[in-house]
Write a structure and sequence with these properties.
The protein has about 130 residues and is of the alpha/beta class. The protein has helices at about 5-15, 20-30, 40-50, 55-60, 75-90, 100-110, 120-125, and strands at about 5, 35-40, 65-70, 110-115, 130. Helix content is about 55%, strand content about 10%. The chain has a 5-stranded parallel β-sheet, with helices on both faces. The model has no long low-confidence stretch (mean pLDDT about 95).
Length: about 130
């Protein structure tokens, strides 16, 4: 089954985060052996802040290992509905959070997601298969 990689997992690896590097890199390696791994433009944007040049980011994300997938319009619609639910529950952000787009993308495609942000994904996407610590 394809898996969407949340940006926090890739950032753990790129920054060699002291707390999460091992879990994130081991988990990503484990699933890469058996599943297709994907990112979308929102994830790409979030991880790009750690790179000076696009070529450096591209080299860090080899296309034979991590595939790219565009955000479907259906996912954007679902992200908006989740954002509305968030606002009605007292959320203060004025525009949809990236996690809504990322979670909706995985949910619409029927994919799993590797993330450390289990709570938000389970809250707004209860049927989503979340791989987390």
């Amino acid at each position: 089954m394809p898996i969407l990689i949340d940006s926090n997992i890739l950032l753990d690896i790129f920054t060699q985060d002291k707390k999460w590097f091992s879990w994130s890199s081991d988990t990503l390696a484990e699933y890469a052996e058996q599943d297709l791994l994907y990112i979308n433009p929102i994830i790409y944007s979030e991880i790009s802040v750690g790179f000076e040049r696009i070529e450096d980011l591209e080299n860090a994300l080899p296309s034979d290992y991590i595939k790219r997938d565009d955000l479907p319009y259906e996912a954007a619609f679902l992200a908006g509905k989740c954002f509305l639910q968030y606002r009605k529950a007292g959320g203060v952000k004025k525009s949809p959070l990236p996690d809504f787009y990322i979670g909706a993308h995985a949910a619409i495609k029927g994919w799993s997601i590797i993330t450390r942000d289990k709570g938000r994904y389970h809250t707004y996407f209860p049927t989503l298969d979340v791989i987390s610590p």
